[in-house]
Amino acid sequence: MPKLFVNEIQPQMQVDETFRIADRQLRANRQGNLYLLMQLQDRTGVISGMRWNADEKLAERFNKGTYVRVQGASQLHNGVLQLIVNQIVLVEETTLDPADFDAGNRVDADMLWIRLGELIESMTNETARQVAKCFYQDPKIEQLIRIAPAGIKAHHAYPGGLLEHVVSLMELSDQTSTHYTVLNRDELMLGAMLHDIGKLEELLFEGELSYSDPGQLLGHLVQGIQMLDRKVAEIQATGSTLDPAFILRVQHIIVSHHGCLEHGSPKIPMTLEALAFHYLDEMDAKLNAAMALIDSDRTRDAWTTFNPTLGRKILKPT
Fold it and tell me: Is the pLDDT of residue 16 over 80?
């Protein structure tokens, strides 16, 4: 029997298939009865699965990252597809095909990495070129950014998503600075390249996606500044000179790109480049999230279901 992938599941289907547990929580309903809420994943997506009448002993058996065979039925709840799990058993990873659960083919990392190098070569500001090349020529950074997501859930949440997001924003920065000639192109471009670089240290993504301890305590904005400071020190140790005012303005793009204090930025954008970049970043992230919502929607309605992160429904393209 061919494998049934998440993106093939329709409402009112009997499901007997193997998934990886991306996350799981033991919760209580309004009556105080416990149930196990799982995020069941394969290479095509994630679906919520609920096992009623659960307890802590059951939850401890099915940890995040384990593979399970699930028997149950699919249903729509408030427009969202989910599985009601009747039976669940552990499955040995050695008996499975890793390609069925690896979403790494979603982006062409080789093509994106080459394009990143081309965009760096197009920089004319010497400080921008030196800093960008110092990051680009670091083999550890290349290894990580090729597989790093841009986030856990909100947007570009798949292997290579961070590299895709960065290249997209550098392309947008290039085009925006052509239209708004008052903007410093290379400052905007380097800010786009480095705005989320701290996520390489904030997140753990070589196994199951989660946060590192420094990521929990500091966050990627602080970690991004730390990484930039280390690269600046490396360059200066070779005797090269960098423009401190230019570096400061790029640092400001990094710390302000969330746009407001309520969203975690310690400073709001206060330069034209930082202001422009915040809106470019917001657009790229929100459009990616909206397109993912459309792709994952199982209803036949013209509108998607309500998405709490976006705070709206989305009208599907005709």
Answer: yes
